[in-house]
Amino acid sequence: MTKKIIDGNKISKKIYKKISNDVTNLKLKYKKVPTLAVIIVGEYAPSKIYVTIKRRRAEEVGMNFYLYQFNESITEEKLIKAIKKINKDKKINGLIVQLPLPKKFNTDKILSYISPEKDVDGLHPENIGKLVLNEDSLVSCTPAGIMELIHSTKTKIEGLNAVIIGRSNIVGKPVAHLLLRENATVTITHSRTKNLSKIVKNSDIVIAAVGRPNFVKGSWIKKNALVIDVGINRVEDKKSEKGYKIVGDVDFKSAVKNAKFITPVPGGVGPMTVAMLLSNTVKAFKQQNRIAD
Known about the structure:
Helix content: 25-40%
Strand content: 15-25%
Strand order of the largest sheet: 5-4-6-7-10
Number of helices: 10
Number of domains: 2
CATH architecture of the largest domain: 3-Layer(aba) Sandwich
Shape: globular
CATH topology of the largest domain: Rossmann fold
Largest sheet: 5 strands, parallel
Distance between the termini: 38 Å
Order of helices and strands: HEHEHEHHHEHEHEEEEHEH
């Protein structure tokens, strides 16, 4: 069974090693290193944890990391002003706004003010448009990580049927376009899709990003399909000291019996997202400094 598991922790470590080597070489040759800036608004605990992880990973590979913390009372106007100031700072190569923002903010509006050149989360309309048009761009981190996981299995994507369960702008839609780039036949499904189990059963690649614990059953999975589980759901577990456990959108125990390859939760897609964020930061640094890859 071990051969079936797509180990995101192991794959992300290889990516971090490559990034670290790139950063070291850039510092030796150009006397400067990629720099990531993160804006966080408010006191939402999970966001603070994610930012801490990003800082640690960035520093581990030798990048500079700047954190801009704002109280939830900051106005939208002042937040946009802060973004514009960072956009103009040539020392900073990548900028993200940690999501979710407090409800009073218009998230799409805020993200649209990040310079597309520094949009290492790949969420600016210009970068999304380039992805759709099959042009080079900074690609959203989780979809980019998903593709790295698929490639790690040496699966030839061309000609395969792929289903995406979930149509979000952050995961579902971008990963659909990345699969189309590699000539997969892609179906995007959602909460109103009829006969979902039949669609999944006919799919060689299944990407579950619906946000519902154990939603995809093992009986839905085609024999020897490749399954990527994006879900991170907290469910009650009285046996655990914490009182809960983390599970994906796929019922792993039943799905693993049919799948040729499958990601675990945790330890699958999750570790890849920060790795791809830092990879995007290196890419942005090279583009801004006109350095050939």
